[in-house]
Amino acid sequence: xxxxxxxxxxxxxxxxxxxxxxxxxxxxxxxxxxxxxxxxxxxxxxxxxxxxxxxxxxxxxxxxxxxxxxxxxxxxxxxxxxxxxxxxxxxxxxxxxxxxxxxxxxxxxxxxxxxxxxxxxxxxxxxxxxxxxxxxxxxxx
Length: 141
Ligand code: NI
Description:
By secondary structure, the protein is of the alpha+beta class.
C-alpha cells in the first residue's frame, strides 16, 4: 500500500451507547484532542498495537486476565464458567468481585503457553456483555 493510499481518509458510521460516547467525548476534551475523529483514530491505533502485542507473544508465560462484565447479560455467567472449564489447563485461580448492581470484576491468574493465554483472552473479549478485558503477562527470567 502506498503512503498516499494509507493517508486517504474513509468515513464510517458507528453506533455507540450514549453514555460511552459521552465519556469518550469527556476524555478527548480533557486530553486536548482537536476533534472526536482524532480521538477515535488514536483509540483504534492503540487497539491495533495491543492486539499485535498479544499476537506476538510466544513461549511460557504467567499472567493475569482482568475483565469487567455485565452479569445481567443473558447467558454470560454460564458462558464464562464453560469457557474457564475449557481452559482449566492454563487457569490457576480466579477472583470475582461484584462491583455494583450489574457489573462484575473478574481476575484470572493464568500460566502456560502464550498462544493459549491469548486464545482465552480473545474468547472472553468476544462475549457479549464483557466490557473491558486486559491481559498482562510476565515470565521467569
Ligand atoms: Ni458479580
